[in-house]
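Q: Got a minute? One more chain.
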Amino acid sequence: METLLLVPTAMERDRVKSGLKARGAWREGSGQTKMELCGFGIAAAAAVSSQLIATHRPSRVVLAGIAGAFEPSAVEASAVEASAVEASAVELGAVEPSALGELGTDDATDGLSCCVGGAYWFGDVLCDGIGVGEGSDHVSAGELGWLHLVPENGGSVIGDRIKLELPTGVDGRHGRRCLVTGCAASADQKMASVRVQRAQRILRHSKPSQNSVAVAEDMEGFGVALACSIATVPLSIVRGISNIAGDRNHASWRIDEAIDSVVTELAVLLETV
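A: Always. Here it is, folded:
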């Protein structure tokens, strides 16, 4: 099988599948792509994804669903900081200039924020919450000097951040977007703001150095990425933005629009299968 398409919940799956069918991009039993539920939350997603990868043995995995975007102001501040830190590292010879990509400090914020209702691919996924403490006092596993996984029989060493694969043809700018996976979604703007700050701190300390910026949160991405890394299967993640992280007023969420935007991205991707 070429592609294993994972979706956390039945609600998301049903709308994704109906949308793809309406576009002629999905045929049951085609053999090239299989759509499965990976479960809700980081623990279920990791366990179920491992099982599904072992069963289907795909060439690639795609995780699709909804997510919450961090406030544009927080993303912009983080982007400027990330570019400034990377520029300093280049000047000191700590990283190659190519690590900065095509963006410098002046245009660091251009096009990075995620809009509610849109869908986006990500270059990295980061685990938030495993370590010591909580809130602004939280220290991640990596900052403590611990890795999430050090295989004794070879394989990938896994830290707080896992690199994702951008599909062919996707704007490289998406590669700067980092998805943050937590056990719990942000309950309010304060929690979301602290999560962005923690994520950027982890990104600054992670290796290899990247000019990545935390732009959105989900609850499954890192778990699926962990399973894919262990199985050495490339993973791409596309998330539709249903709400601003920390906004718990579901009346203002745009779930259907977000999933429909995911369908648009997936339809293009599946045309290449």
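A: The chain has one domain: 3-271.
Q: Perfect, thanks.
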